[in-house]
Amino acid sequence: MSAEAAAPSWAWPEGVERHVLDEVESTNAEAQRRAPGLAGPAWILARRQTAARGRRGRAWASPEGNFAATLVLRPKGTPAEAALLSFVAALALHEALSTLTGRPEALSLKWPNDVLLNGGKVSGILLESLGSGVSIAHLAIGIGVNLAAAPDAAALEAGAMRPVSVRGETGISVLPEEFLDFLAAAFARHQQQFETYGFSPIRTAWLARAARLGERITARTGSETIEGIFDSLDPTGALVLATSQGRRVIPAADVFF
Length: 257
Known about the structure:
By secondary structure, the chain is an alpha+beta fold. It is 28% helix and 30% strand. It has 7 helices and 12 strands. Strands 1-2-3-7-6-5-4 form a 7-stranded mixed β-sheet, sandwiched between helices. Strands 11-10-9-8-12 form a 5-stranded antiparallel β-sheet, with no helix packed on it. The model is unreliable at 1-8 (pLDDT under 50).
């Protein structure tokens, strides 16, 4: 297939706003501020973040040249269904990174919301919601990708994944705004699949790209440490481990290899 024939699949998705800002506190915080005035879904990209954060309030290093953006949208369905969009985002990241680097074999997905390159963490996903009860008014899907540089491993908490960057691992330089074009298109495709066919094909595709599937891993919740063989994901996206005490279904945890 020629580049010209393939190009339309990477066109910017129709009806999605695109905002590129020089500096913000964090793109998720900016998304939360802008959400009430948005007519539809919108990507917010910042060239610099002054107070970026990851899961559970952890700091997220965001030097200039790396990718920091948030998609804010009105999700359909329940909060539990909206949470599954983290797997949609992971597949979109895998696709965009595979296309731009030409290294799909070097990429894998780490439950619940990281992307690995050559076994190191290159990207993370953070979902935050507005609203409560049976529906969510808006959902912010924050995404950080180490395009240009990785944070200093010595500054991370003990046991954290080795951080890597696209440039450092592949020698390929990708501009954040270029990456946004590919990511937005990929996300729109996987989101359409999710809304049309449900979570099952997303789950299957995610597992096909999963890191350490069939291998022994450790899951740490707020109250216990569980070791076992990474067996699968259940229909809600929870981690399924085969342990010495039997099958365990874990809805939320940090995973360590």
